Amino acid sequence: xYGYDAARTSHVASRDLxxxxxxxxxxxxxxxxxxxxxxxxxxxxxxxGIAYVAGDTRIEARDIETGTRLWETDPEDGxxxxxxxxxxxxxxxxxxxxxxxxxxxxxxxxxxxxGAHSGVSTSPxxxxxxxxxxxxxxxxxxxxxxxxxxxxxxxxxxxxxxxxDRVYVGAGSNGSGEVAAFTRNGDDWWRTTxxxxxxxxxxx
Length: 204
What we know:
The chain is mostly beta strands. 0% of the residues lie in helices and 44% in strands. The relative contact order is 0.11. It has one domain: Methylamine Dehydrogenase, Chain H. The protein contains no helices and 17 strands. Strand 15 and strand 16 form a beta hairpin.
């Protein structure tokens, strides 16, 4: 997922990488008329030789060796976040909804209202059987069905979510920032109330 893991550590263990002069292959292009994935503003997710790409005109899976498109799904509105791959399912937040797609064929398994407002940092997070989505706050959904488990509101539109021991949300509007932390059950733990100030609402 975006940031590698649920906590967004962006830390990947050392592994073999291609040389600096390795051949570059293009498997998606900007523009719907070219047959590509449309304009792609966020990184793809790659697993077992397949890249899952969320472009503004379609969501697709590509073989990373040949560039062959394995499947494609056209969302009802734009996408500007990275997809998440978990338990054989591709989860994507569009501008107005969140989708769960079968990773093998792109079939829509479920869709719910509420999606990402802007930026790749609003990509969903999946932990165990729960998907966390920034939707004018933070919503925890059943990853298998899309049913809402809880929804916590923030003062501004959520711009990012990370999950570790707690669920952390960054929100902001017109330069006013807010950070909030919630328990895995959706209870308030703490929130910033003024720039640079942290108010503890519950003990650890």
